[in-house]
Amino acid sequence: MAKRDYYEVLGVDKGASEEELKKSYRKLARQFHPDVNKDNPKEAEAKFKEINEAYSVLSDPQKRAAYDQFGHAASDPNFGAGGGGGFGDFGGFEGFGDIFDMFFGGQGGSQRRKNGPQRGNDLRYDMEIAFEEAAFGKDATVEIPRTETCPTCKGNCAKPGTPIKTCSACNGSGQVQVTQNTAFGRFVNVRTCDKCQGAGKTIETPCSECAGAGRVRKTRKIDIKIPSGVESGSRLRISGEGEAGQRGGSPGDLYIYIYVKPHSNFERQGNDVVSEIKLSITQATIGTTVMVDTLDGKVELRIPEGTQNGTSFRMRGHGIASLRGHGRGDHHVRVKIMIPTRLSGEQRELLRKLALSFGEEVEEDKGFMGKVKDAFGK
Question: What is the pTM of this model?
Fold first, then answer.
């Protein structure tokens, strides 16, 4: 099934600012989080992953530029260059060499590169972590399927103890020359040797473990450390943990893409955390002490008398640890004052007297039937 446009997924225009992207992402992530959608968790999970994937690309300027120019093709791990990493990891283009191969018989240099050492492909692993794990970091172990250098033949493709000979067809060059006589004259075309497939060597007895490929498929457990303060869409690079190279080439890298689950009570703003507490009219009016949920557990917060709706209190040092290791952010608590929807007669009378003590005129809402009775003098 074709992927939807990332801008369409997030519901923003192509020229959307970073703040607009973040605002839309947070709204959609909360809306489609699997923990919120208990009735249809599979559909919600699929949408949630689609939203995270779109945001991880569009929130990164380099990846966004690649996506704007090439679309979803930029996410292909082999996009741009041999063994590239997609979305900006374009490496060195081999396209010019291929053009020389087409018009001048392979003398542009790309054939020589193909016969020499080749770096292994980069790998990508998407990891979802909790809000608290992003705040404080965590150690994790991931299982990565990848190709590795064959442990039996050490990558030379031959069964140990058997000879590896220079190709007799190309004398070890990996290329053969084919001369063609045409009406325009004689043309010499250089192409890959059919006998050794460009390797320059022939193997009489292939390695039994890798069947002569020099590489085998393995699933490897890799320990990673997620730093404290990491944000959704962050990318961690694990050097040398990608797929094995060919003909002595270096291995690729492993990239861990982080997705942070939205929290039911907390919202992140930089390294600060924002949450909300509900207070009654009396608590806000005369003041009180409440226990507030923070990343460090429950912390006592003093509410002064006369607190207004929407007031924000700052709890220093209870936010998210800095990714650069320079302390922690703060926790901001917004006040929401709850107005009672039902009152007893006694409570209503007490509030009326309180209003009169403030010099306020209070006209009680008698309802429809009360107004009818007043109209008829009953």
Answer: 0.58
